[in-house]
Structure formats: structure tokens, C-alpha cells
Amino acid sequence: MMAIVERDLRKFFRSPALMMAAMVFPLVQLIVLGNAFGGKIRDAKLGIVNQDGGPQAVRVIEALRAVQSNARTFQTIVYSDERAMVSDVRKGEINAGLVIPPQFSRDVYAHARPRIGLVLDNTDNFMTSTFEQTMSSLVEALNQPEVEPRVLQQTALEVVELYPYIEYMKYLLPGSITLAMFVSVMIGGGIVYIDDKARGVHEGYLVTPITKMELVAGLNVAGALKAMGAGIVLTLLGSLISGVGSTFSPSNLFWLFLLIGCTSFAFIAMMFLMMVRINDPLVPRAIFGILNTLLYFPSGAIYPIQAFPKWLQGIAFIDPFTYSVHGFKAVLLKGVGLAAIWPDLLYLGGFAVVMFVLSTLLFKRTL
Amino acid sequence: MAQQKAIQVIDIVKRFGNFTAVDGVSFDVAEGEIFGLLGPNGAGKSTLIRMMTTLLEITSGAAIIDGYDVRKEADKARRCMGVIPQAMTSDGDLTVWENLSIYSKLYGIPTAEREHSIDELLQLVDLTQWRDAPARNLSGGMRRRLEIARGLVHRPKIFFLDEPTTGLDPVSRVAVWEMITSIKEKRNLTVLITTHYMDEADRLCDRIAIVDHGKLVALDTPRALKASIPGSSVIEAQFLNAPDNWEQILGGLAGVASVQPEGRDMYRILTDDGSRTTTELVETAVRSGVQVKTLTVQTTTLDDVFVHYTGRQLRDHLADAPLYQSPVAWGK
After folding, report:
1. Per-residue buried b or exposed e for A90-102, using 16+ beta carbons within 10 Å of the residue's own CB
2. Smallest CA–CA separation between A204 and chain B, in Å?
3. Which of these, A1, A123, B69, B220, is most buried using a 10 Å CB contact count?
4. What is the pTM for the complete model shown?
5. pLDDT tier at A148, thresholds 50, 70, 90
6. To the nearest whole percent, how much of chain A has pLDDT over 70?
7. For the ranges A39-43, A222-226, B115-119, which has the lowest average pLDDT?
8. Which chain A residues are closer than 8 Å to B93 by Cβ?
9. For residue B174, with 0-12 CB atoms within 10 Å meaning exposed, 13-18 middle and 19 or more buried, which class applies?
10. CB A169 within 8 A of CB A241
11. In chain B, what are the domain boundaries?
12. Of B54, B93, B94, the CB nearest to A207
């Protein structure tokens, strides 16, 4: 069995392009998606039409300018005509428009439900929610009475965050590590395995007295070791790039190594089961994209599973990616150990064993 | 004393769905013999060798290798056979030495023995100076020699080679033939070889089985096979302005055993007396006003044997056959 492992690893280390391919894709995804989706909106354009001109309108505009100079969420542009401003929102020249209606100041003083209008381009959900959130906070601040009442009449919700703020790149890291192992398995256990089969390399194995189980185990161990290499490199590099310092504590390193090992074996066993009866070298290439979408996206790596419809949650439930991503999140982002990840390790280990047994049963000892 | 049988093939059949690739073939190979399976592409040679080497399941019949039935004692049979598949399957990324080392390990050769055994094999196939070269840097002939060495890492008694010289240049082919003969002598091997090259079968093999459409059509020594067909010489001639009864006229020439028209006024004449028939043929042509366009005279070859037993020429088959007809593909 070790001869097969040795042969596969020698080949792997002599093909640096293959090794790179297994790691570059998840790394690029981590850096590009992490930066693209992780930031906050800055310098969006907000048009303002002040039809009131009273002191309360000035107060609103001052509050908006405070946001402009501090959080820089938007830049304000003053319009004299409401229609022109709405037209510019439609054309995309500005992102939103604020209308302070006539009589606004008077309504404030008269406690007559004063209103401010916000015109939004709601084709961009992210921009819309940012404006809504910022404006709601701003209006809430403006609504605070200048003199505190003697008895507090409103119940306030105090939010306690257990962990420091997690940037999106850090949030993506567990998925990227898992994806690196999957890509490695897809190349090493899928494409290379079928190519070797088509070139007749396996014919050479089949005429030796090696048993069916030794053969399957050898190919699985070789594929898992390659995937572990990709996982370890991505964990270390990805942690450095996204600034996850907790990776490097000895206990976390141990749990991460355990997760990488279990994930690699689960993935290679699953891939081998899928490929065990395939002979056409085009098949693994053709299903690469489908598998990636089917396994990576429902795993919670880039979006919470709780937001999925039931059928997608069903896929997530059996998807080994889900357990791997959950385990990596627990160790990398929360710094918790076995207490949190044992169900993940158990599932991944069990999944690997079931897949291995099935692929050994299905493996043909003949051509 | 009767020679021991190294290989026994008994009424072996292989079907892929409705297609019968090998149809009730039986033969024995004696210890120390070089036995050839000769036939065109798609004749069933590779399917036969794959059944004998445990690579394909046998539909019915039996193959016994060194006393072991390949269906019942596959691992024991595998230990006593070396197999060189048709395709070059050595790893281009690995060095010559690494290729041999990996296979030694697959056969469980002890570490102490391995180094010495590989060095000896490299000498045997004349690749010692290339031991650290990546296999992809070797020429086709050298790569085939590496594969031959690879098939011998566990000192097998029986050596199967599936079209070992296909794709090699004439010089490399001769080198491979010499190597097989030499290794067979040095290691006291029984060799079973498949080929569609008549000269290869003629030169290498002690006995030849001609296979066509999955059936064994003739089996004997090359000399006996050639002697088994009428005529000791073959005249191939092409004529211009030949009359309609020209085939009949040719059949009446001195010593002629048979005449086969091959299209476009080309005839293949088997004769017991090549020089006399040729002289008469030229004289008759001149007398009849027929122009001799081309004329060749040669002694009987295995191609003639093939034509005799199958009714077709081996080279026609090769031209018509697909480049590679995989029995695995048939099975789909």
C-alpha cells in the first residue's frame, strides 16, 4: 500500500503547478471575496433637498455632515429641486436622496409627527440597507430629548458581542481552508486518478498481487496526504493574510490539524467513491464546477445555513463541507476546542469510513 | 520427457454484451517457450492476454498459469507472471530507478534484495547509465526496455508482453527482440507475446497461434505453419491489358498451387517452383500481349499463412482497423 502512496506523492511533489492549483484558487477567493464583501460603504452620494430651511432642518443637515466627516459613509450634495434629485437617483448619479419637507421645523416644535423623506435606489440591497441603517440611527439620535426624563420610559437592548468584530475575510477563512482541501482532492483524487487509469497506470497495479483494499487504501491515503498539505498551507497562509492570530497557539494548532486530517480523509473517500467506476477523463473535469457549487455554497462558508430554504438545509446536513467549516470556525474564530468540534470530527470520521467501505466494495479488481 | 505446461488455456470465452471477443480458444505453452499470438487489431489477442493476466474476467473456460487457475488463485498466478501492457505505463515524472523501486515494493520485494535486484535489471536492459533520468526523457525503445525491466522485478517465471514493439522504430524493435531473447535465456522464462508484426512473430516465437475474430485459426511453429500451405514461393504481379481468363491461364502455369486475384489486375500466385513459374509467367505474358507492370517473387511468409487460413491479408486488417480498440470500451 505504501508503494502507491510513495508513487503518488513523488509525482505530486514533482508537479508544482498541480500543488499551486490546489491552493491558489481558495487563496484568491479568500483575498478577493474577503476584500470585496468585507468592507463598509464609504463616500456614497446622498442628495439633500431642504424645503424647510428652519432650525430643525439645519440640525438634520449638521448631523448628516457629521457622518460625512467621521464615518464617511456618504458625501452630501445639496439640491434645490426635488425632481432633479430623484431623477439623479434614478440615473445612478447619486445613491440616495433626502427630502426635508416644508414645515418640518414647525412640525418638530408642534410634536406633529415630523417626517423626512429618503429616496433610495433599491436595486442594490447592500447600499439600501446601509442607508436605511445609517439614517435610522441618525433619526433616533435626533429624536433624543434634550433634557432626560426623570423616569426612563423606554427599554433599551444592550448588545454584548462575545468575540471581537469578525471581518468578512476572517469569516471566509474556514471555507477557504476547506475549499483548498477539496480542490486538492478533486485534482489529486479525481482528475489525476482518472488520467492514470486512462493511461494504463492502474493496469500495472492490477497485475500485482496487491489486494483490493490495499489498493483503495493506498490511493486514499495518498490523496488525503496531498489534501492535508493544501489544508495546512492554507490555514497558515490564510491566517496570516486575514489576521487570525489564534491559529498559532499550540492547542489550536492541534485541533486544526485534527480537523484537516478528518476533512481530508472524508473528502478523498467521497471523491474516490464517485470516481471508482468512472473511466472517462472528462468526467471529473465536467463535474468539478457542479460539486463545488453543491458542496461549498450550502456549507455555511459564505452565508449562514439558517438563511437557507429547507431543501438546501437538507444538503447542508449531509455535506461534509458543513462540518469542516463549522469546526474550523469554532477553532479559528472562537478559539474553542474539542468540546465544540467533537461532533464535526465524529461526522467527518464516520463519513470517511462509510465512503471508504463503499468504494472498496465497488472497486473492480479487473479492467 | 514431456515438457511441463507453463500456460494452459482451455476453451476460453470472453463476451462483452452480445459481442464475443474471444470464442472458445484453447492452447498450451510449454516451459521455456516463446509463444506468439498473431493477428490483426481487434482479433482478440489483447483480450486473451488480459484474461490470462487476471485483468479481465473470463466468461467461460479456464486459464491456468504455472498450475494456478487465474479465476480461483489469482494472487498466486500474479506472483509468477510479469506483464507488460500494450500502452507505455511507466511514470514519466519518476526516474528509471524510482519506477522499478515502486514496483518492487508493490510485489513486496524485501528492502535488502531490492537495491541489488534493480541494479541487476538495469544492467540486463542496458539502462544503468539512465537510472536517475526521468522516464519521460527516455526514447521509445528505452522506455519499452524500462517496462520490460519493471515486469521482471519479482523474478516471474512467465512473461506476458502485449505488442511490445508497437510504435517503435525498426532499430529499436530489433533491440527489443534481442533483449527479450537474451532475457528469456538468462532467466529461463516462458514468454507469451502478442503481435501483429509477422516478422516479429517469425523471428521471436517458437510457436505461433494465429487469431482472427476471436478464434484460433492455426497453431504451430513458424516453419510448420509456412509448410502447411500449398506452395513454397509467392509471386505477386500486376498486369496491364490482361484478358478475362487471365486468372485461369496463370493457374495453368508450371508449379502453381493457387492464384488469388487482389483487385486492379494484381494477382498473388502460390507456387512450388518460384523461378520456373516466373519464367513461364513472363513468357506467357509476352505471347499474350499482356504487359507486366510489377513483379515480385518471395518465399512464403506468415502473411501468406494468414491469408491462407483467414482469406484476408494481415496488412489489410491493419490498415482498416481502428488505432486502438479497447475491450474496456466494448464492455461499456
Report:
1. eeeebbbbbbbbe
2. 7
3. A1
4. 0.75
5. low
6. 91
7. A39-43
8. 10-11, 14-15
9. middle
10. yes
11. 5-225, 230-299
12. B54
Fold of the CATH domain B5-225:
Rossmann fold (3.40.50)
Which of A38-42, A284-288, B174-178, B246-250 shows the lowest per-residue confidence on average (mean pLDDT)?
A38-42
- Which residue of chain B has the CA closest to A202? B89
In this predicted model, what pLDDT tens digit does every residue of B64-77 receive, in sequence order? Answer: 999 999 999 999 99
Of the partner residues B50, B78, B89, the one whose CB lies closest to the CB of residue A208: B78
User: Which of 3.30.70.100, 3.30.450.20, 3.40.50.620, 3.40.1170.60 would CATH assign to domain B230-299?
Assistant: 3.30.70.100
Across the range B94-120, mean pLDDT stands at: 92
CB-CB neighbors (< 8 A) of A283 in chain B: none
User: What's A310-351 look like in SS3?
Assistant: HHHHHHHHHCHHHHHHHHHHHHHCCCCCHHHHHHHHHHHHHH
- pLDDT of A153 reads 54
From A126's Cα to the closest Cα of chain B, the distance in A is 50
Disruptive mutation site among A203, A215, A279 for chain B (greatest number of B CBs within 10 Å): A203
Q: How far is B321 from chain A (nearest CA, A)?
A: 21
Nearest to B91 among A3, A7, A209 (CB): A7
